[in-house]
Amino acid sequence: MARGGYRLLKRCVAGELDVEMVLRSVGESGLFGAQGPAAMEWERVHREPTPRLMEACAGQDERSGGDRVLLQRNPHRCFEGLLIAAWAMGASHLRLMLVRGGHAALQAMLAAELVKLRRRRPYPGMPDIVLGCCDTQPRFEAGISRLRQGIETLYWVPDILDGGAEWFAAQRMRPRMEFA
């Protein structure tokens, strides 16, 4: 936060950026999530009854190594994207999940960073991000509307809001991080 992190989330919560503007920007950017255009997924869940659950899962596809690198390099940027998406769709429950096995160091680092985030919440009333494991078959809690997004999808949300949908769309395809 001292270096400007969570600035866009704070602008959303303060009303400087409204839900419609965020959804429009994400939609015009061409950002895709697990089920299709990310903005359409967020809108669908936003129309469902509360409570709503937002899950970010790392490691469920062939790009899982990239998800882990994004989380290791800049976990708070991933957290900010998750919190903005949750804010836009009205989710009150948040989960950050890793595929089981072989990620003890990453899980420990993320747990420590989430403790820091809870201590210095970017805004009052921010829902906690719960760290857990994701299964290949998602569980559905009765009565809870749920959306699962990938880490890479959420990682780009702050850039889209900061740099603009046109910038992101001009990349012809999602910008890719170099994982050297």
Describe this structure in words.
The chain is α/β, with parallel strands linked by helices and 180 residues long. The chain has a single domain, classed as 3-Layer(aba) Sandwich (Rossmann fold), CATH 3.40.50.11540. Helices cover 48% and strands 17% of the residues. Strands 5-4-3-6 form a 4-stranded parallel sheet. Strands 1-2 form a two-stranded antiparallel ribbon. Helix 1 (7-13) packs parallel to helix 5 (75-89) and helix 3 packs across helix 5. It is globular, with a radius of gyration of 15 Å. The two termini are 27 Å apart.
- Overall CATH architecture: 3-Layer(aba) Sandwich
Strand neighbour order, sheet with most strands: 5-4-3-6
Give the ordered list of helices and strands.
HHEEHEHHEHEEHHH
> Superfamily at the CATH H level?
NADH-ubiquinone oxidoreductase 51kDa subunit
Sheet/helix structural class? alpha/beta
Supply the CATH class: Alpha Beta
Overall body shape: globular
Radius of gyration: 15 Å
Q: Could you estimate the helical fraction of the residues in percent?
A: 40-55%
What is the total tally of β strands? 6
End-to-end gap: 27 Å
How many domains?
A: 1
CATH topology: Rossmann fold
Largest sheet: 4 strands, parallel
InterPro entries: Nuo51_FMN-bd_sf
